[in-house]
Amino acid sequence: MVIQTGNRQAYENFRGGKGTIYITWFVEDMPYNGSPLRKIALVEVPPGASVGFHVHEGTEEVYYVLSGKAKYIDGDKEVVITGGTITITPEGTGHGVENIGEDTLKLLAVINEVKRG
To answer: 42, 66, 72, 76: which is deepest, by most CB within 10 A?
Structure first.
């Protein structure tokens, strides 16, 4: 399967965050039968904007930071992340991210379904 285009959308106060962020959805609800992969997206967070803290129920999420600088909330911890950082949010845990840099924060986000049983 090859996917070459994405659908870029603006989101105001995404997940209770600040400002407007932009998400280019490359995959929304993966059509491949049996795959746990659900979503792949480029997340662009302008300076001062954020993705609000949220908990993943039934899914896990991985961020790969392409560029920028951010305050990342990992459960009850705050850490600064920059280009090259990978974050993993397992099912049942939460995270949030705020751009504290001067340039747009760019993240590759991958969301997988967690299958129980």
So the answer is: 72
**DSSP character string of 70-100:** EEEEETTEEEEEETT-EEEE-TT-EEEEEE-
- Can you tell me the distance from the alpha carbon of 20 to that of 52, in angstroms, rounded to the nearest whole number? 11
Residue 34, pLDDT above cutoff 90: no
CA distances 57 to 64, 113, 115, 116, Å, are 20, 9, 11, 12
Q: Where does the pLDDT of residue 27 fall: very low under 50, low under 70, confident under 90, or very high at 90 and above?
A: confident
Residue 42 in contact with residue 110, Cβ under 8 Å? no
- Per-chain mean pLDDT for the chain: 92
Rg value, the chain, Cα: 14
Give dist(CA 66, CA 76) in Å, integer: 24
